[in-house]
Each structure stands twice: as C-alpha cells, then as structure tokens.
Amino acid sequence: MIVTCSKNDLIEGINISSKAISNRTSMPILECLFLECNNNEFVLMGNDLEIGIISKVKATIKENGKIAVSYKIFSEIIKKLPDKEIYIEADDKNIVIIKCDMSEYKIMGQKGDEYPKPSIIEKNNGFTIFQSELKNMIRQTLFSVAIEESKPVLTGELIEITDGFINIVAIDGYRISYRKSIVESKDNIKIVVPGKTMTEIIKILSSDLEKKVTLYFDKNHILFDLDDSIVVSRLLEGEFLSYKQILSDNYNTKIKINRIELLSGLERASLISSVTKKDPVKLEIEENKIIIKSNTTLGSAYEEVDIKKEGESLKISFNPKYLIDALKAIDDEYINIKLTSSLTPCIIVPLDSDDYKYLVLPVRSND
User: CA angle 8-216-116, nearest 5°?
Assistant: First the structure.
C-alpha cells in the first residue's frame, strides 16, 4: 500500500474513525486503526464490534493494500508531523513507513485481512434527512437515555417513522424526551439505536443546513451514510416502551412561562442541594407566578417567575436536574407546561406545535 495525503485531511479522518476504537477489549486488533487503499479510495476505519466508523480521506493512491496499525502510536505520530503532505507505505512484512518533510518513521502493523469488518447492510430500506435536523433531534433527546442496563432496550433511542414524520424518543424511567420532524418516507419504521451510537453520530453530523444523511437499516443493524463517512451499528432488541398514551394532552393546569427565566431560577435554587444532588425543588403554581423553593441542610432558596396560568393552582416537587436538562434542550423563548396533580408527571410542550414533548415524573415532598 502506498498513499499520499495532506496532514489535515488525514487528521480529520483519524478523528472520525477513531470514535469506534475500543481501549478496553480482549481483542488487541480492535485497538488498531484500519487503513485501506482500494478502487481509488483511501479509507480509515475503527470498529469495536458494536459500532464501526469508516472515513474517506482525499488522497493520491499509488498502490492498493490494507493494514491495521496501533491507533495510539499512529495518531500521535501524525499529529506531531509538520503540516505538509504525508507519505504512507505498508509492505508485505506489515511494516508501515510514514514520511513527511524531513521526518521518517517505521512502525509494525498487523495484517489488514485480520481486522473485523462491520456488517454489510443492503441499501434497500432507508430514508434521507438533513444532517442538522437529525443532529438537533438527537441533541434534544439523548440526555434521557437510560444509563442502567436493567432494561437494555431503554439504553437506546427509538427512531420511529410513520405517516411522513420521524419521531426520536428516549426514556430512562424518570422522564421521556420526544422530538418530531417531517421526513420524506412513506415507510413505517420502528428501530432502537444504542445510546453510544447516537453519542458518536452526533459528533460527526454536520450543522450545515444543506448537507443530508441517509439512514439504511435491516433487522439487526443501521447504517448512516454521510458521503465522506459511514457509521454502522447494531440495533437493540426488545420492545420499546409504549409512550404515546403517557404523553397525553389531558391536564388540569397549564402555564405559559419564559424558558430562560425558569431555567435560571431552577439552576440557582438547585445550588442549595446536598452532596448527592438529589434534593427536590418545590414548585408552587399560583395565579400569576410560580414560586421555586429549595430547603436542605445547606440552606434555603426562594425564586419567583411570572406566568400565565389556566386552571387550578398546584404544588409539586421535582428533581431539578430533570427539569433543567429538558429546558436546556429547548430553543424556544416561551413554553407551556401541563400538569394534572402533584403526583402525576408534568409535560413541557411548545406554544403552538407538537415538535417536542418532555415528560418529567414528580417526587414526593416531605411537607
């Protein structure tokens, strides 16, 4: 294998593909970065057997071939080289030669044929969406993915397509995050993608409003095709929680409130918290204001925020972190919050659409 490319293009490819390289594995070759020149393409790949990421690098190929190299050693060498063209050669003894300007390095590689490849997915079932839209949808829901693996399917995000809309949903047992958008697809799709995969894909997706990504899937895997990068991941098995009935529009109290003012009040009140950070804040909803209270062994806090209220007055307590996470994910200036009682969840929604819904369970108050 003989190839030349710019340092910047190579670094970008390394940064993307290495997101799938494991540093804790019983298979040493999975700690390697895979390099291949084939059919006028130079690609880098990382794979931890759950997620594989392939990145295409602009290059001049003089000889096809493939090799696996220590990611740590290879990437550190490349980063330290001058910002000039880099020459890479791998011979039949798996010795990798790296040249740049007046520098030359030789490192041992492993046979490229021994590197495990991601699963092949037929590009039959799929849909296309703007990268920026998918990036925002994941950003606005991912924080609600379950951390504990008592129910593995909840450690992922539901991607659901029906009637020309895409829904992305995350549930951790204490809250639900839901985002909805339009998608050009007539298919009905319901798959669950691991939270780890979504965490990595959001780093790769562009904020460019013109760029698109196509998602393909089969029974067990999903593929994200971003032109210069490809991400392949396994899907999670199991039945995702039926969430639509839980996100009911029934309520006895509805308030319109400035999101930033509520967020700021909650963040300040939550400073009066124990070491465990689990002390609740109490919300007292009155005619024209909401009172935020926090009382712990460290002290007390009192905040007021103006509201417009429909329905009954109410007192309810929450873990402030769950409300803060939801409010940070929203971009709107004003929001509606719907409540039924002090023991049932609140639901945060937009003023005039159903593009997002955030459900948060209350906690029992001692007073």
Answer: 60
For the record, the structure tokens of 32 come out as: 């390697």
Residue pair 324/317 in contact by the 8 Å Cβ criterion: no
| CA 241 to chain CA centroid, nearest Å | 19
Determine contact, residues 142/157, Cβ cutoff 8 Å. Answer: yes
The secondary structure of 317-364 as a DSSP string is EE-HHHHHHHHHH---SEEEEEE--TTS-EEEE-SS--SEEEEE--B-
Q: Rounded distance, CA 20 to CA 187, Å? A: 30
To the nearest 10°, report the CA torsion of 329, 332, 336, 341: 10
Contacts of 309 (CB under 8 A, 6+ apart): 253, 254, 255, 285, 286, 287, 288
In the chain, what are the domains? 2-114 (3.10.150.10), 126-234 (3.10.150.10), 253-360 (3.10.150.10)
Instruction: Work out the percent of the chain whose per-residue pLDDT is above 70.
Output: 98
Round to whole Å and give the CA distance between 105 and 89: 11
Strand partners, 58: none
Which residues are paired to 296 by β-bridges? 299
**This prediction's pTM:** 0.92
pLDDT digits (tens, 9 = 90+) for 88-127: 999 999 999 999 999 999 999 999 999 999 998 988 889 9
Task: Convert the pLDDT of each residue in 306-323 to its tens digit.
Answer: 999 999 999 999 999 999
Of 131, 229, 144, the residue nearest 179 (C-alpha): 144
Q: For residues 192 and 124, give the distance between their C-alpha atoms in angstroms, rounded to a whole number.
A: 19
Alpha-carbon distances of 344 from 181, 323, 338, 360, rounded to whole Å: 27, 15, 10, 9
Confidence of residue 367 (pLDDT cuts 50, 70, 90): low
